[in-house]
C-alpha cells in the first residue's frame, strides 16, 4: 500500500512539475517577447511546444511563435507556425490575417487570396481583408470584383481613405478619368499635404497628356517634400518629353543629389544633350 501511495505521489509530483515547467516556459517566452528579446522568446516557445504538444493552449503558442518569427524576418517559419495554429483553430480571423500578410510579403498572392476570402466569409465587413482582396483583384485585372470590395467598405465608411484611393486607381485603370480625378480632387482637398496623392493625380493627368497640369502638381509636391527624389525624376521625364532638355537635366541631377544612382538615369541624361 505504501509503495502504491509513493508511486502515486511521484506521478502527481511529476505531472505538477511538468505543468509548471510548461507554464514557466510560456511566461518567460512572453516576457522575452515584450522585452524584444526575440531569439530567446522563439527558443522558449519551441521548448514549451515540445514539452506538451497536445496542450489546448498550443494554438496561441504557435500564433505567438509565428509573430516572433515574423519580427525576426523568418517569414517561411512564421507561415508554418501560423498554419499549425490554424490546424488547431481553423476559424481564427486574426491568424488568417497574419498568415495572409506574410503571403503578401512573399508575393504569394493566390494563397493570400484564399485566406482573405476565408476572413470575409467569417467577417464580411473586415476592412483589411476587403482592401487586400481588392488589391489582388486589381493585380488580376478583375476590376468588377475589386469595385465590389471597395464599395462594401465605403458603404460602411464613406470616408475610408485607402478604399477611396483604391477606387480612384480602379477608375484610372478602366480609363474613367473624370471619376478618377473627381475622387482625387476630393482627397487632395481633405489631405492637402499628402504628397502621394499629388503624384498620383499627376500620373492621371499625364495619361491624358496634360503635361502642364501634371507639372503643377509635381511642383507643389516638391515644395512639400523637397527630399523626395522620385518627384524630380517625374518632372524631368515630363520636360524631356516636352523637349526642354536643359530643365530635364537639372531635375535629373537634383534627383541624383538626393540619392538616385546615376546609372539609373544615365540613358535619360544622354537624351538631354
Q: What is the number of beta strands?
A: 0
Outline the low-pLDDT stretches.
1-19
Structural class: mainly alpha
What is the helix fraction of residues, given as a range?
Answer: over 70%
| Main beta-sheet strand count, sense and barrel state | none
Strand-residue fraction? under 5%
- The arrangement of helices and strands along the chain is HHHHHHHHHHHHHHH
Instruction: Tell me, rounded to a whole number, the average pLDDT.
Output: 90
Distance linking N and C termini = 102 Å
- Total helices: the number is 15
Overall radius of gyration: 27 Å
Based on Cα principal axes, name the global outline: elongated
Structural account:
With 273 residues, the protein is mainly alpha-helical. Helix content is 81%, strand content 0%. It has 15 helices and no strands. The chain has helices at residues 2-34, 38-51, 58-71, 75-88, 93-105, 109-122, 127-140, 143-156, 161-173, 177-190, 195-207, 211-224, 229-241, 245-257, 262-271. Helix 1 (2-34) packs antiparallel against helix 2 (38-51), helix 11 (195-207) runs antiparallel to helix 12 and helix 12 runs antiparallel to helix 13 (229-241). The longest helix has 33 residues, at 2-34. The protein is elongated and about 75 Å long.
